[in-house]
Amino acid sequence: MSRTRHEIDPSTLTTGALSAGRPKGHQLRKILEDLAGRLPPGALLPSERVLADHFEISRTTVRQEIQRLVTDGVLFRRHGHGTVVAEPRPAHTDLLTSFSRDMRARGLSPGSRVLSSSVEPAGPRLATRLEVEPGSPVLHLVRLRTADGDPMARESTDVSLARFPGLDELAWERHSLFDTLEERFGVRPATSEARILAVLPEAHDAELLEVALDQPCLLIEAVTRDGGGRVLEAERSLYRGDRYDVLARARRGAGHHGDPADGNGSGNGGGNGNGRDVRQKAT
C-alpha cells in the first residue's frame, strides 16, 4: 500500500524510536532538524498525529517541538497544507541596502504591493524623527515586500516631501526608495540607527505575512541618514521572524575607560564613543 503525503518514510529518519533515558522532546527536535537538513525547501513533513503515533509520544510534545523549529526558521507552517521545510532566510545584508537590490543580488525576484500611500502633515513626534518642522508634508508609504512572491515584511516609511518633492507621484510597486533617492536627488544612505523589538503580530499583519499569530516577528524602528547627517527616511516595519535574524556588532570607543577596542567588531560609530552596527544577516 502506498503512503499518504503525511506518512513517514522510514528511510529518511536517522532513528526509528526514541531512547527512554533522554528527554523525548529534545530527541524529536534533533530528528526533525536532521530530516529538514536532508529535504529540499518546501518538502512536506509528516503530520503531528503521524509523528506522535510513530514515536509513541503525545501530540502536545510534537506540537511544541515543531513550533520551536518554526520559530528558529527551520520549518514553516503553510496554512491548509501542513508543516514544510523552510526556505533559507534571504534577509538584507544590512539596513543600508535597499530591499530590491539585495533580493536581486541573491537571485530572488523582489516585489512590492502598496497597501497605502498618502501625504500627511508631520505630527510632533514624526517631525522630530525626520528633523523637519511640524506640519511639513510627509509621504507615508506602507508596502508589503515579497521575495519570489513570498511575503517578507510590512514596511512603513515616512519621507519629507519638503526635501524630496515629487515622491508622492511615483508608482511604488516598481520603485526602490533608496535607489530613487540616489537617482533623483543624488543622496545615499550612510548610517542607520535602529531599535529592534521581538513582537507577536496583530491579526491583520499575521494575515498579510502569512504567519501564525504566535510566530514572533521583528519590529524595526529606524532613522536613516545620508553622508552629511541629514535624515533620509524614518521607518517602522514588521519583518517575519522565521525569515530574518539580526546580527549586532559593538565596538568600544578608544576614549572610554576599560579595555581598548580590540578591532574585532565593526560598526558605524567609529572610535569616538560607543558604535553599534545592527544589520540583518542572511543565514
Q: Whole-number radius of gyration?
A: 23 Å
The end-to-end span amounts to 40 Å
Proportion of residues in extended strands: 25-35%
CATH third-tier fold name of the largest domain: Chorismate lyase
> Strand sequence of the main sheet, in spatial order?
3-4-5-8-7-6
Number of strands: 10
- Please identify which CATH superfamily of the largest domain we are dealing with: Chorismate lyase-like
Topology summary:
Blueprint lengths: L23 H15 L9 H8 L3 H13 L3 E4 L3 E4 L13 H7 L4 E12 L2 H7 L6 E11 L2 E11 L16 H9 L3 E11 L3 H7 L7 E10 L4 E10 L4 E7 L23 E7 L2
Antiparallel strand pairs: 1-2, 3-4, 4-5, 5-8, 6-7, 7-8, 9-10
Describe this structure in words.
- Residues 258-283 have low confidence and may be disordered.
- It is elongated, with a radius of gyration of 23 Å.
- A 6-stranded antiparallel beta sheet has the order 3-4-5-8-7-6. A two-stranded antiparallel sheet has the order 1-2. A two-stranded antiparallel sheet has the order 9-10.
- Strand 1 (75-78) and strand 2 (82-85) form a beta hairpin.
- The chain is of the alpha+beta class and 283 residues long.
- Helix 1 packs across helix 3 and helix 2 (48-55) packs across helix 3 (59-71).
- The protein has helices at 24-38, 48-55, 59-71, 99-105, 124-130, 177-185, 203-209, and strands spanning 75-78, 82-85, 110-121, 137-147, 150-160, 189-199, 217-226, 231-240, 245-251, 275-281.
- It is built from 7 helices and 10 strands.
- The chain folds into 2 domains: 10-85, Arc Repressor Mutant, subunit A, CATH 1.10.10.10; 99-243, Chorismate lyase.
- Keywords: DNA-binding, Transcription, Transcription regulation.
- One of its GO terms (molecular function) is DNA binding.
